[in-house]
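Session log. Operator J.P. requested a structure for one protein chain; no other inputs attached. Running the standard single-chain path with token output.
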Amino acid sequence: MPVLTTPVTTNKFVDGEGNKTQQHSDTAGIALQLRSVTKIYTNTSHALLDVNLQVKHKEFLFITGPSGSGKSTLLKLLYGAELATQGEVIVHDCNLATLRGDRLSLLRRRIGIVFQDYKLIPQRTVAENVTFVLQAQGYTRKEIQRRLEPTLKLVGLLAKADRFPDQLSGGEQQRVSIARAIVATPPLLLADEPTGNLDPDNSWQIMQILEKLNSFGATVIVTTHDEQLVRRCNHPVVQVRDGKLYRK
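Structure written below.
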């Protein structure tokens, strides 16, 4: 199985009317690219080595691999939590190495992030956890309420809007995390091991929500080590192994 030394793409999803941003012709339809990306941490270990990846708008991509293989590092590069040691990370036509401060914050508003450990605020209700980011971004109260109800309905938590995280199951807490990530309708959704702490039934519910979001037009990238879940879904897959990217 060869290393992906050229960008990997799939032709299943083709961008059409939804792409309204100004783009150069060579990047039209591309949501993100990694070009010869290497990430080296201070202990000199290679988290990623010469990785190339290209993902189109409206695509759903699985990134698999064992724990410690570099999956989470790859996602962190995509939302600017880490910077590449070498190479270029391009998201929504922006080179993340050139973004700082407000410019990076503006880009992150177009990226929804779902974490394995939920990262919910214990003292806030479901509704407050979901709308926290909108409040921080200056949305009006009317716009927040307009977005909240359909988002909670989509993840099946409308009836539990006033509950606190410790009153929810693990699967429900993860659905709150998804709702928070999508309430601002970002065009790109990154989910880092979103089913890692869940049983098979709850894992499948989470995947169905992510697939529905993809059907609405979101580009979705999911890291997971659950090969059974990947086989159950019919989406493109790449694997991170020893810091390198392989086609599956």
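Operator note: Strands lie at 30-40, 46-56, 60-64, 86-91, 94-95, 111-114, 188-192, 219-224, 237-241, 244-247.
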